[in-house]
Design brief:
Blueprint (H helix, E strand, L loop, with lengths): L2 H29 L6 H19 L2 H10 L7 H19 L2 H21 L9 H18 L6 H8 L5 H26 L12 H14 L7 E5 L5 E5 L2 E6 L6 H20 L15 H15 L3 H14 L1 H4 L4 H8 L16 H16 L8 H12 L26 H21 L3 H5 L4 H10 L9 H9 L6 H15 L4
Parallel strand pairs: 1-3
Antiparallel strand pairs: 2-3
Helix pairs in contact: 1-2, 1-3, 2-5, 3-4, 5-6, 6-7, 8-15, 8-21, 9-10, 10-11, 11-17, 12-14, 15-16, 15-17, 17-21
């Protein structure tokens, strides 16, 4: 057995334990922790993050990596782990512990401020935390270094190797292809279906969502489902993948599709091979890859015509009064009803990427020193009007609607759109390999879809960088074409129009 590899595994395993404890404390903060625990939890997370950072940048890891990088006998799994850890090690050695500790503490404090600011529609409660967050994130970017501009360093944390200029091109192409078809589709859709605005008991919604995510493959023996102000998924440790949903009494689709969305993340985490666990290769290659699964399960599967029929059949059993007389076509149209809406997580497939584009535009402006935090609410409203075509009536439904900035996740939002493109391409490939899936999806049977993803996608962990893995699966580099074709086909069929 390779002694250097054994030493690396020992050190990485210890680091994995520390990171798992951080994830557990963070999950508890967002789901269970009483509000008064915020200040102490911020200190705890700062201390634990500093310890993890210290372990990662230990010079002994650098020496082991150097030895292994010259070892031709490594297996593909070992070689990929060395490659991934080298990237993380090089970044960690550039960051001072003081900055790591301060960022971790500030993220916990800012998140608590966001949980108060949004329901009170008061941006001023979050503003000072966000101002400091931008300062520290600029320091982080400048310390790590960047290729073309400061935002590149932040984007690289979530989508390794991607540049701001590449994302700008992506959104430019999406805008050019989406804008001409948005209004014709919205016009064809007509009024919002009444069933979307009826009252649905929240506990019953949440019970249904739990049943549904289990039906599509989420293993409750290896995870749990809770509620939180903003839906999210966290792989705490091996055998412990946690996800949350959000329900609203008059927004039945919120709990259903936040559940499908987060379950996509969870299935990916639960599908990584056991032999990859506690190794650098036992993670996903990028957040865009991760988001491809949330978008695929939410949209390509969850909002498909056959699967919406399955949902209706079982949802009507729980809400017989609200859904009495609702037919499969009416429900399918409700599930996919397009509109210029305020909230990103509730946006339809047609306009979703416009919501992401406005956030990217504002983030880049802040890191180019073109926009100050104090001006964010107004800038947000202007960007929403520009991209989505409406103006938020309040900050709660505007600049305060997402929690990502409060936790310092600058550079994260573009991965939602990249994941959307990946999802369409992956599902298109799966259908070519598997054949017609309609009959089984109509029965709620997603086993073949999950099996295909497990074999071709989840089982790969971080053996390959994101673009390389996508190219291996698809047989060609991923493009926006499958997504645009998917949208055109869906809405032409839905409303009998030609786009």
């Amino acid at each position: 057995m390779n002694k250097a590899w054994e030493q690396l595994v020992e050190r990485v395993s210890e680091l994995e334990d520390i990171v798992s404890a951080i994830k557990l404390a963070s999950y508890d903060q967002e789901v269970f922790m009483p509000p008064k625990g915020g200040p102490a939890r911020a200190k705890i997370l700062a201390t634990m993050s500093a310890i993890a950072h210290d372990r990662l940048k230990n010079p002994a890891i650098g020496e082991i990596l150097l030895e292994l990088e010259h070892d031709d006998s490594l297996t593909p799994l070992q070689g990929a782990s060395v490659r991934v850890l080298r990237r993380d090690f090089d970044k960690a050695t550039k960051l001072p512990e003081k900055l790591v500790r301060e960022l971790a503490e500030l993220e916990a404090q800012a998140y608590q401020a966001w949980t108060q600011a949004r329901p009170q529609n008061d941006f001023s409660q979050l503003q000072p935390f966000l101002e400091r967050m931008i300062e520290l994130k600029k320091q982080q970017a400048d310390t790590i270094g960047w290729t073309e501009e400061r935002y590149d360093a932040l984007l690289d944390d979530f989508e390794p190797g991607m540049l701001t200029s590449e994302v700008e091109v992506m959104f430019g192409e999406l805008e050019a292809k989406l804008r001409p078809i948005v209004q014709p589709i919205i016009d064809a859709a007509g009024e919002r279906p009444a069933l979307l605005s009826l009252s649905y008991d929240r506990p019953t919604q949440e019970e249904f969502s739990a049943w549904l995510v289990g039906r599509v493959g989420f293993d409750f023996e290896g995870g749990r489902l809770d509620t939180s102000p903003h839906p999210f998924t966290s792989e705490v440790s091996q055998g412990d993948v946690r996800q949350t949903i959000r329900s609203e009494e008059t927004a039945i689709m919120m709990s259903i599709y936040s559940g499908m969305h987060e379950t996509g993340h969870a299935l990916y985490e639960q599908g990584i091979p056991d032999e990859f666990r506690r190794l650098p290769v036992g993670q996903v290659p990028s957040l865009g890859m991760h988001e491809s699964q949330s978008r695929l399960w939410e949209n390509q599967v969850g909002r498909s015509r056959p699967f919406s029929e399955f949902i209706l059949a079982h949802l009507a059993e729980r809400f017989p009064e609200q859904l009495r007389g609702v037919g499969t076509e009416e429900f399918y149209r409700a599930v996919n009803h397009p509109s210029r809406s305020l909230i990103r997580v509730a946006a339809d497939e047609l306009t979703y990427n416009l919501h992401v584009a406005l956030r990217f535009e504002l983030e880049v402006a802040m890191f180019r020193d073109e926009l100050e935090v104090k001006d964010l609410p107004g800038a947000w409203n202007e960007a929403t009007e520009k991209w989505v075509g409406i103006t938020p009536p309040s900050d709660a439904d505007g600049v305060l609607q997402d929690m990502h900035w409060s936790i310092g996740a600058f550079g994260y939002f573009p991965t939602y759109s990249l994941g959307t493109l990946y999802a369409a391409a992956l599902f298109d490939r799966a259908k070519k390999d598997l054949g017609n899936l309609n009959d089984e999806l109509r029965e709620g049977d997603t086993s073949r879809v999950l099996g295909w993803l497990q074999d071709n996608f989840y089982s790969q962990g971080y053996l390959y960088p994101a673009k390389e893995l996508m190219t291996k699966i698809l047989g060609e580099p991923p493009t926006a074409t499958p997504f645009v074709n998917y949208l055109r086909s869906k809405y032409e069929d839905l409303y009998g129009i030609k786009l």
